[in-house]
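FIELD: query
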Amino acid sequence: MRHAEEARVKSRLLILSIILRATAGAACGQRAKSGADRSTALDSAYKAGILSKEEYEAKKRELAAAPPAPLPPPAAVRTG
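FIELD: result
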């Protein structure tokens, strides 16, 4: 029984880390994910049973309180 519980926890952590990486692309120089993208990933995790209702609600509150992602810098313009 303990082995099954450990496997379930490891599986949840792996999936959550994938979701977090997908929503935190801006930190790696990638285009920032919108709040809608993050919300969609969170909804998918909850519907798949990865997150409990409490975890889901807590993450939703975090997303709502987080400042919007910064805009990417403008492209360089070459002259002359």
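FIELD: remark
The chain has three helices and no strands.
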